[in-house]
Design goal:
Elements: H1 2-16, E1 22-24, H2 25-28, E2 29-31, E3 37-46, H3 56-68, E4 83-92, E5 101-108, E6 119-126, E7 132-139, E8 145-149, E9 152-156, E10 161-170, E11 183-188, H4 193-207, E12 212-216, E13 219-223, H5 232-239, E14 243-245, E15 251-255, E16 260-263, E17 268-274, E18 279-290, E19 301-312, E20 318-322, H6 325-333, H7 339-352, E21 355-356, E22 358-361
Parallel strand pairs: 15-22
Antiparallel strand pairs: 1-14, 2-11, 3-4, 3-6, 4-5, 5-10, 6-7, 7-10, 8-9, 11-13, 12-13, 15-16, 17-20, 17-21, 18-19
Length: 362
């Protein structure tokens, strides 16, 4: 047993003393211009089993659709519960080519209860410039179900939002000249002076020349060597696989809604003593019946009896400090606090100046 504990402690020490890892450039940065674009459109989902919209706006959309097909129908004469008005969204990938397909998300915008079994009719998807870049159509998959009967409802996932896999066909390409460029800009996902400097050093070492320079913490400008002029794809294939030593700032992220606390590896705590106690107030109410005397004119009434009890835990001073993540975790664990208490303690440590990290609250 002691041997097992020793092995575990050694592994923990090795884990917390591992130096900063190296990551590929393609994982920490992207080339300026290589970006996605958002598309949106308004469409109709048909074939629903009586779970569609009941509003007049959807009926007007149906009438407009039929008029484009050569049928003139008064919206007042339409009785359709099998149609739902939806917003269709998609993401246009970098370097889109006509004929390529992308997934689309279909979301009800009316009072439709379920999109299960529906089919999205031909819907043009537009970009921010108002131009049509793709056409979407196909069966909607909600990845779940909804069934009801006798006042009981069973539901899995969200029935008013669905997906059409490969439901949009790209019709318009976004022109982007790559091979004619004399330089490229590499944009870091997380701007950092250290990472930008390391990236410049590694690229110049690999290309054997001063081809890269950092203009700011988030941008590295790469001059295309003469031997790669007109062949940017081969250059980026080599550059994006270069390993760069990364560094992250000391940061503690707190999500108060879920009680989640994430502590970065560079977080430090100066020596400090903490006392944290909780006050619990419990309120209980019991209902008793008051009966009138026999043959009296009184009424039977319900009398609530409320009892309030307050309980406060004892708080002891605990010394907390740490120069590594392992020491910080062990020090906080010795207090035996809950995640909610830990959030309050970390906020107090930040206010006192003992927490040497950025505190980010979501």
């Amino acid at each position: 047993m002691k041997k097992l504990i020793t092995i575990v402690l050694v592994l923990l020490i090795l884990f917390f003393t591992i130096p900063a890892a190296a990551e590929r450039i393609k994982d920490i940065a992207f080339v300026e211009g290589f970006r996605e674009n958002q598309l949106v459109g308004y469409g109709l989902v048909v074939g629903l089993n009586g779970t569609g919209d009941k509003g007049d706006a959807t009926l007007q959309s149906i009438a407009n659709m039929l008029s484009r097909m050569g049928l003139r129908v008064d919206p007042k004469d339409i009785k359709a519960k099998d149609v739902a008005a939806v917003m269709v969204t998609a993401t246009l990938p970098p370097f889109p080519r006509a004929g390529s397909k992308v997934d689309v998300i279909v979301s009800a915008i009316g009072d439709a209860k379920n999109l299960q079994g529906g089919t999205l009719l031909m819907t043009p998807l537009k970009g921010p410039d108002g131009r049509v870049y793709a056409i979407a159509q196909g069966p909607v998959s909600i990845g779940g179900f909804q069934a009801s009967g006798g006042g009981t409802t069973a539901q899995k996932n969200h029935p008013t939002v669905g997906r059409v896999p490969n439901g949009a066909i790209i019709e318009r390409e976004i022109t982007f000249s790559l091979n004619n460029r004399a330089q490229l800009k590499l944009i870091l996902h997380n701007p950092d002076f250290t990472v930008a400097s390391n990236m410049v050093r590694e690229i110049n070492t690999f290309l054997k020349g001063d081809f890269a320079v950092a203009s700011d913490p988030s941008t590295v400008i790469l001059k295309v060597p003469s031997r790669y002029q007109g062949n940017i794809v081969e250059l980026m294939h080599l550059v994006e696989n270069i390993d760069v030593k990364t560094d992250t700032p000391a940061r503690v992220v707190i999500n108060e809604r879920t009680g989640t606390v994430v502590i970065g590896s560079n977080v430090r705590i100066s020596p400090v003593a903490i006392a944290h106690g909780g006050l619990t107030i419990e309120i209980t109410t019991e209902y008793q019946v008051s009966q009138p005397e026999p043959f009296s004119k009184g009424e039977t009434v319900v009398v609530p009896q409320t009892e309030i009890r307050a309980k406060e835990k004892e708080a002891h001073l605990v010394q907390v400090s740490g120069t590594t993540l392992g020491e910080v975790v062990r020090a906080l664990n010795t207090m035996g606090v809950t995640p909610r208490d830990l959030i309050a303690i970390l906020q107090a440590l930040k206010a006192s100046g003992a927490l040497k990290a950025e505190l980010e609250i979501l």
